[in-house]
Amino acid sequence: MGPASLVLSIHDRPYASLPAVALGIIVLFVGNWLLAPPFGLMGAAISALIAITIWSFALWAIALRTAKMDVSILQWFRARRAAALPVG
User: Fold this and answer.
1) Is 40 helix (H, G, I), strand (E, B) or coil?
2) Which of 2, 26, 46, 78 is spaced 20 to 30 A from 32 at the CA atom?
């Protein structure tokens, strides 16, 4: 679930994650339908990887739009780089 679901819950909007969950389930279903028959277990694993990635990006976008918080790991790298830059 990650920090995006927690942020949405803290902002009293846990239901806002439902479109991302639905999108992940649909992508998983379609991916398994397309990839599992020809590639077997490897196709199902690739389908799950794609679905989880899309689900995570969708949750990130919803948390960014709803709570105005960047919950991605990239935000941590940006803050770290900004702290390392010399002032002046």
Assistant:
1) coil
2) 2
Distances (CA, A) of 70 to 6, 32, 42, 77: 12, 31, 33, 12
Instruction: Identify the H or E element spanning 25.
Output: helix 18-39
CA R_g for the chain: 17
Q: pTM of the predicted model, to two decimals?
A: 0.76
DSSP one-letter string for 63-80: HHHHH----SHHHHHHHH
pLDDT in tens, 40-58: 999 999 999 999 999 989 9
Domain ranges of the chain: 2-84
Q: Does the pLDDT value for residue 1 go beyond 60?
A: no
Enter the tokens of residue 70.
Answer: 């960047």
**Residue 7 contacts by C-beta under 8 Å, 6 or more apart in sequence?**
63, 67, 69, 71
